[in-house]
Design brief:
The protein is built from one helix and no strands. By secondary structure, it is mainly alpha-helical. The longest helix is centred in the middle third of the chain and has 41 residues.
């Protein structure tokens, strides 16, 4: 039972890490697209 608990905890932590990566990735893409839009306006 202890091992299963450990695995569940590790999976939850891994899920949080993946979620954080997706959020940062998404925020980074929005940032990039906004910068590109600004560059296009300047040009």
């Amino acid at each position: 039972m202890k091992n299963e608990c450990c695995v569940d905890f590790i999976q939850i932590e891994e899920g949080k890490r993946l979620l954080a990566f997706f959020v940062f990735d998404w925020a980074g893409m929005i940032c990039l697209s906004e910068n590109m839009d600004m560059n296009n306006h300047v040009i």
